[in-house]
Structure formats: C-alpha cells, structure tokens
Amino acid sequence: MADVTPELMNKFSEGTFTDLLGLKFTALSADGATAEWVVTPQQHQPAGITNGGVYCTVIETLASVSAGVWLGDRGSVVGVNNNTDFLRAVREGKLTGVATPIHRGRSQQLWQVVITDEQDRTVARGQVRLQNLSPQN
Predict the structure, then answer these.
(1) For residue 1, what pLDDT is reported?
(2) Partners of 122 in the beta sheet?
(3) 60: annotated active-site residue
(4) Separation of CA 69 from chain center
C-alpha cells in the first residue's frame, strides 16, 4: 500500500461502503490522509441529521488507509478500537476528514481523525487504534 495515490484509493473503493457514502480521497501519504464527501438525506438518522455511523465509518477508513500506507510491505492493519465524538449536528453540505498519526509502533498504531464542515468547524473527531499484522507467507 505504500504507493497508493488518492486516485488509486478512490478506484479501489468503488462498490464499497465508503463509495456508497461518496467518500473521495484528496490526499494520501504515510503521514495522513484527507477525504471529503457531501452529506445526503440517505445518510441521515430519523431526526434529519447525519447518522453517527457515517462519522465512525469515515474515521475508521481514513485511519486504516493511512496506517496501511505507513506500514507498507511490512504487513497489513486491522482496527481494534474506534472512539468517535459527535460535536455538531449536520444536515447538508460538504464535510472533510483529516487523519494524522498519534503513535506508530512496531505492533500498534493510533490515529486521530478530525471531520470539519465548510466553515472549518469541527463536527466530529475520533481516534482509531490499529493492530499491525505480519504478512502471511
């Protein structure tokens, strides 16, 4: 995964859950990722605001992809904990998620993801702990 570009990641994501959300990577490196999507009524909970599961999905996706790019050919990653805080209700508009590393170790990684709206207000934030797995022989 070390050579994955945002365009290639968007291609890999076709037909997946994140594609269904409309999530598009705009930046991707071993030091983080950025992606954006437009909130639609299909992403709402019955109260008419974005379902928290959407934020959890985006946070898990950005952390996992970033962690995988950093780990590269040394293995793969799996999420072992996702802790997401919902800070501001959103009904519509474009949202942006940015993943940054907190800790990248031999066996685990910890990534933070912040989701902002078009006014650069934080609407959700989360952190994901990932287990580094050795390549299968």
Answers:
(1) 62
(2) 116
(3) yes
(4) 13
Report residue 107 as tokens: 């066996």
Q: According to the model, what pLDDT value does residue 20 have? A: 93
The CATH number of the structural domain formed by 6-133 is 3.10.129.10
Q: What is the mean pLDDT of each run of 10 residues along the chain (137 residues)?
A: 85 93 96 97 96 97 97 95 97 98 97 98 98 84
- Nearest CA to 125 among 57, 45, 55? 55
* Domain layout of the chain by residue ranges: 6-133
Query: What residues have CB less than 8 Å from 136, skipping those under 6 apart?
Result: none
Catalytic residue among 7, 60, 92, 118: 60
CA distances from 97 to 39, 78, 92, 100, 103 (A): 13, 20, 15, 10, 19
68 with 101: CB under 8 angstroms?
no
Q: pTM for this structure?
A: 0.94
Residue 123: phi and psi, rounded to 5, are -105, -25
